[in-house]
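Fold Annotation — chain and its backbone

Encoding — discrete vocabulary of local shapes
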Amino acid sequence: MKTVCVSPARFGSQRLPGKPMMPLRGRPMIEWVIEAARKFTVVDEILVATDHEKIVAAAREVGAEAVLTDPELPSGTDRIHAAMHGREGDVIINLQGDEPGMPGETVTRAHAALLAGGADVATACVPIYHREDFESPNVVKVVRGEGDRALYFSRAPIPSLARRSAEELGAPGALFGHKHLGLYLYRRDALTRFCTLPPSKLEQTEKLEQLRMLENGMTIVCVTSASDSVGVDVAEDVKRAEDFLGRL
């Protein structure tokens, strides 16, 4: 059983152009992502899949292997699939190139859940205790069913608060929902299947590619992480990421 961690790192980000090369505490973000991946005890091989020579050079500068992929690929998952062509790997971890602070324990827990059950894909989430985070479109939410099976993902606040009382929501430690973390672990055949499917209606509506899996009957197990990750999605996330990395 071989597990490969691939970080898709797109230079042409719409929100933050050149994001993987953005300096965090004086180092390109992709270097921090590689460093995080090296702490994952379940990983046998690390690879960066990118659309730009600058990112290839930055990865190689810290001794990581990088593959230049077609810049026209529609998603990070397609970039991973292309980078894995001709390579061995039974479980493929998608550690996105803007996730410099993914906890190793979370990866271990998700890896175990994938191998223990019949799910096609594993991911992770953390509880949301602040209403501001719950209502923010920059925070992707997940709703789960029995056995931590993911039922739906959205940038909207789900599940609805409409029928929950003000007293309940105002109580100390009130749980609003669960934040989805930017981590996926695929069985090899699930990765291949995903990349052969056309974009789905809900995926296009929500702008969340994991909905393509659910719409096509794929099963996603979503474990609870003991701690949040530190992703950089918008400019406001940079300082928070630097503060986190400074405590490592």
